[in-house]
Specification:
The structure holds two protein chains of two kinds.
Chain A lengths: L1 H28 L4 H6 L7 H11 L5 H14 L12 H36 L4 H15 L2 H15 L12 H31 L2 H8 L4 H23 L1 H15 L4 H10 L3 H29 L1 H9 L1
Helix pairs in contact in A: 1-13, 5-6, 5-8, 5-11, 6-8, 7-8, 7-11, 8-10, 8-11, 10-13, 11-12, 12-13
Chain B lengths: L2 H33 L1 H4 L31 H37 L1 H15 L3 H12 L3 H28 L2 H8 L4 H37 L11 H7 L8 H29 L6
The chains are: A mainly alpha, B mainly alpha.
Chain lengths: 313, 282
């Protein structure tokens, strides 16, 4: 087990290097740097001043050297200052992160509450009316873009029925309802299908038939055996869908004016605030990679079949 | 296999065939309509007439008019071009690029394979739209850049499928026969490998059309795709959000158009998967 974790951590290094390099290179490709941003719209600034400033900030050094010092800054939390506000990029990012993590956590809870029971129900009622109904529901949810869902919910709950605020007023319970619901609807539609497929696969195994033949009640088999063995896959799939959630929050946060990193990223993109975008991309990717790694390791710890396989090998 | 099972399977196959015909026709119809959208609009989608601005849906204007008095139905139809065509182009590019990379990796092996696969690992390490947002943001808006952004995040999936399929084909007995018969690498790949691996890849791309359409619309919604006044469904929705309180039809008509188009392509994709691989259907 330790060997496995060690191996996974080693594999992480090239991926992390790749992520940081790509994020760095991309913003360089954008063809703009701090100096151009500083003097760009101020008209005639002599080339000498620009060159001097470049040298001062180290922007005249070779590309890889600049990447190295940027990487060092990334590790020490020094990612430069925002072009727009002049504030420290990393601190701004960290200050907005809790709101996004809260929204993500709430959406995951909502997704679990909605989709696991419904997915199991659909699998149990396989090919009957309930199953068809739930499948249509999940299909429709899968075909709705989340910004459309967001606007629909806003129209119904905030404008028509006036139950909830149109835009969020800070991170309160009331303002969290609609963004959470929007994210949960999109995710549940996809996830319910996966839960249904997993449970159905387990239900079709021979031991279920055997239990039935021995007169074990269906509900007992379902709760004691089927769900127990499908749970591991279900939890893993949930953890893996966090990625789409992290990306999806950007658009939802900016629609509902939820003050998290997603909205920060969209605003930064509109204002071409490259250091801010860079921080967002790099840190979201790092968080995502870490979540995936933890999921993989947990999966190995929890599943005896895989665990034993590793120890043998 | 009992007769009942055989009969059941036959019945199921017929339903799948039926669905394939229906959804295939709908999808083709949608694509053809979007191609000829310029001739199908009842009014000029760019023609402004402020005297009839923000009119609710009526017999003259089935979906109402927007804030400049432009006919919404015409704009939604005209928008199909940007939305549907760009999506199809996008999926075609991803499929071609991913397959090319995957076949190269699978066939050559060695360090080329290792390097390309590690690169694809890095691209896969970015969550969902996050990377696309950054690419579109660093290149600036525009439909073309939105397509580049989505290609950047989507090719690794196809490269992986193509690679594993190529590897499987490479190990078959008949591949050895082909090689013994003296065919060159180019001929083997084009005539023997590609036709055999294209099935699963095309099924994946059909399944992805709906998702890609939504992601492209999402980028446009954020102002990183098609720019107004070009009608595109995503940007039309974000453009008119402020009017949602008073004239919701302006905001929601393009949304419903996206929903219908995505649904048709999703239904078609699911059906094609069921048709190609009957086992996956439950």
């Amino acid at each position: 087990m330790k060997k496995y974790i060690g191996k996974r951590l080693l594999q992480l290094i090239p991926v992390l290097l790749g992520i940081t390099f790509l994020s760095f290179a991309m913003m360089r490709l954008a063809g703009s740097d701090t100096v151009t941003e500083m003097y760009g719209d101020k008209g005639a600034v002599s080339q000498q001043i620009i060159d001097a400033k470049r040298a001062e900030l180290g922007l005249d050094r070779p590309f890889l050297v600049q990447y190295g010092s940027w990487l060092k800054g990334l590790l020490t939390g020094n990612m430069g200052v925002s072009y727009v506000s002049g504030k420290n990029v990393f601190q701004t990012f960290v200050s907005k992160l809790p709101a996004t993590l809260l929204l993500t956590a709430l959406s995951i809870v909502a997704t679990v509450v909605i989709s696991i029971p419904l997915g199991i129900l659909a699998a149990v009622k396989h090919d009957r009316f309930t199953d068809y109904f739930l499948r249509v529901f999940s299909f429709v949810g899968n075909s709705l873009p989340n910004f459309f869902v967001a606007l629909l919910l806003m129209q119904l709950f905030s404008i028509r029925w006036k139950l909830l605020p149109v835009i969020s007023k800070g991170t309160t319970v009331q303002s969290a309802v609609l963004p959470t619901l929007t994210l949960a609807i999109a995710m549940s539609a996809k996830y319910m299908r996966q839960v249904r497929a997993t449970v159905l696969e387990e239900l079709n195994k021979d031991y279920v038939l055997g239990a039935k033949a021995r007169g074990v009640r269906g509900s007992v088999t379902l709760w004691k055996s089927v769900l127990k063995s499908s749970m591991l896959t279900i939890v893993t799939l949930l953890a893996l869908s966090i990625g789409s959630l992290l990306g999806g929050t950007a658009i939802i946060e900016s629609i509902f004016m939820w003050d998290g990193v997603g909205k920060l990223a969209v605003d930064s993109i509109t204002m071409r605030d490259y250091p801010m975008i860079q921080a967002y991309v790099v840190w979201m990717a790092i968080i995502y990679v870490m979540v995936n790694l933890i999921t993989d390791i947990l999966y190995h710890v929890l599943d005896p079949r895989i665990r034993l396989g590793v120890q043998e090998g | 296999m009992s007769e009942v099972t055989v009969r059941k399977q036959k019945l199921r196959k017929n339903t799948v065939k039926m669905r394939l015909i229906i959804f295939g026709t709908l999808a083709v119809l949608l694509v053809v309509c979007s191609f000829f959208s310029a001739y199908l609009t009842p009014y000029d989608p760019y023609l402004q007439d402020l005297s009839i601005a923000k009119q609710a849906p009526s017999a003259q204007h089935l979906l109402g008019t927007d804030r400049y008095g432009r006919d919404m139905l015409s704009r939604v139809i005209a928008g199909s071009r940007a939305s549907i065509f760009s999506t199809l182009l996008l999926v075609a590019i991803i499929t071609a690029l991913g397959t090319a990379v995957g076949v190269t990796c699978g066939w050559t092996g060695g360090w080329v394979d290792t390097v390309l696969m590690r690169i694809s690992d890095v691209f896969l390490a970015f969550p969902g739209l996050v990377f696309a947002l950054a690419v579109a943001g660093s290149l600036g808006g525009g439909l073309q850049n939105a397509i580049i952004a989505l290609v950047a995040i989507s090719w690794p999936k196809y490269a992986r499928i193509a690679r594993s399929q190529t590897l499987a084909q490479k190990e078959t007995q008949w591949m050895k026969a082909v090689r013994l018969s003296g065919s060159g690498t180019g001929k083997i790949i084009l005539k023997h490998i590609l036709p055999n691996i294209l099935g699963p890849i095309l099924v994946t791309s059909m399944l992805d059309i709906g998702t890609m359409m939504m992601e492209l619309a999402a980028l446009s919604f954020l102002g990183l795709g098609a720019k107004p006044p070009i009608p595109e469904w995503g940007s039309m929705m974000s453009d008119t959000r402020s009017l949602m309180t008073t004239s919701p039809w302006i905001t929601f008509s393009p949304g419903i158009a996206i929903f219908i188009a995505v649904m048709i392509f999703n239904l078609l994709g699911d059906t094609i998967r069921d048709y190609a691989d009957p086992k996956s259907r439950r």
